[in-house]
Amino acid sequence: MSEREERAIAANTSVRPGLLRAVILEAAENLFPGYFAMVMATGIASIACAFLDMHRIAWALLVVNWIAYPTLWVFTLVRMAVFPRRLAADLSDHQRAPGFFTLVAGTCVFGTQVLVVSDAHALAGALWWFGVGLWVVVMYGFFTAVITGARKPPIAKGIHGAWLIAAVATHSIVILRSALDTEATPTEPIQLLVLAMFMIGGMLYLALIPLIFHRLIFVRLESHHFSPPYWIAMGAVAISTLAGATLILRAPSWPLIELFLPFLRGLTVFFWSVATWWIPLLVALMVWRHAWKRDRLTYEPAMWAMVFPLGMYTMCTLELGQALGWPFLQIVPEITIAIALAAWAATFIGLVLHIARSIRACLQRARTAAI
Questions:
Q1: What is the domain partition of the chain in residue ranges?
Q2: Secondary structure of the chain in the HEC alphabet?
Q3: Do residues 48 and 337 touch, judged by C-beta distance below 8 A?
Q4: pLDDT tens-digit profile of 280-302?
Q5: CA 25 – CA 36 distance, rounded (Å)
Q6: Which one of 135, 173, 250, 267 counts the least CB within 10 Å of its CB?
Q7: What is the pTM of this model?
């Protein structure tokens, strides 16, 4: 056996024990802050399937999230412990920082999923409180960091669709609490908190969407600038619709909410109308980018931010029809659920291939370093 072959065998032997550690560290260091959007997309698709009596798919997606949610938290905690400077830099970065709101939304959507699909009430309740705590930390940490930052980008480079996840995270808290108390009456402070969160989420959307419109209409848009997070412009009002619809359904047993029923009905229909308006425009812009401009459609973590709105529109339309007694809306979710599941499957395949390539590259680098 040649000396080169002996070194290669020795390298392979030494690489294997440390491969898992190397993969975890590399994944944690470069973790996209918005990766919890995968949990959001998987969770809402599962919830919609459960409501549409597609229980096997709902359970399969729950299993995926039981793997994805704790795994992403492992990477996040490792990043906090080993790469705190990278984490701090992301928190003040106008492009990457909004992704941290997916920690809140992912937690609450996962809580709603485990409650709806597996009836895990205690776990869902714990996730709600955890989500509220995360909301306080992320909401005020994010806005404090970007407001006090010494260097601020122009609006063309700073604002994008992911900023609207702030509204999504806020309304996810409303939805999980509404799911927890479908029959019971929570205390008045909890009712007020949920109502306030619904109002705050609406305020955040209405405050941010003019900036995004300004970016899209008055600043030159290159094809690569129209990224998947712009779909959150639709997803944010879709989850607003779902939050409003759930509150309307809880009004008979939530006395404080009942006082606002006329307002809630009008605002919820407004949100659904805006979400519906966005869909043809977003599809047209996708065609412009990938068919006209011929940009290649490849996997990126932000693609989960496009899958989530599709599932959320399905669920919000289903719940709105029930809340307002409009059965003719039922046909919409029966169509959009197929689109949402197809988008989820395509993105999940892209994720698997991306992970395989990343592990292969990490292994190759480790072998090269060992030799």
A1: 18-370
A2: CCHHHHHHHHHHHHHHHHHHHHHHHHHHHCCCCCCCHHHHHHHHHHHHHHHCCCHHHHHHHHHHHHHHHHHHHHHHHHHHHHCHHHHHHHHCCCCCHHHHHHHHHHHHHHHHHHHHHHCCHHHHHHHHHHHHHHHHHHHHHHHHHHHHCCCCCCHHHHCCHHHHHHHHHHHHHHHHHHHHCCCCCCCHHHHHHHHHHHHHHHHHHHHHHHHHHHHHHHCCCCHHHCCHHHHHHHHHHHHHHHHHHHHHHHCCCCHHHHCCHHHHHHHHHHHHHHHHHHHHHHHHHHHHHHHHCCCCCCCCHHHHHHHHHHHHHHHHHHHHHHHHCCHHHHHHHHHHHHHHHHHHHHHHHHHHHHHHHHHHHHHHHHHHHHC
A3: yes
A4: 999 999 999 988 888 888 888 88
A5: 18
A6: 267
A7: 0.91
d(CA 51, CA 71): 27
Tokens found for residue 115:
């409650």
Asked if 117 contacts 47 with a C-beta cutoff of 8 angstroms, the reply is: yes
**Position of tokens 């529109």?**
313
Tokens coding 30:
């470069």
Residue type, 307: V
Q: Tell me yes or no: is domain 18-370 CATH 1.10.150.170.
A: no
Closest CA to 170 of 118, 219, 207: 207
CA distance 269 to 356: 44
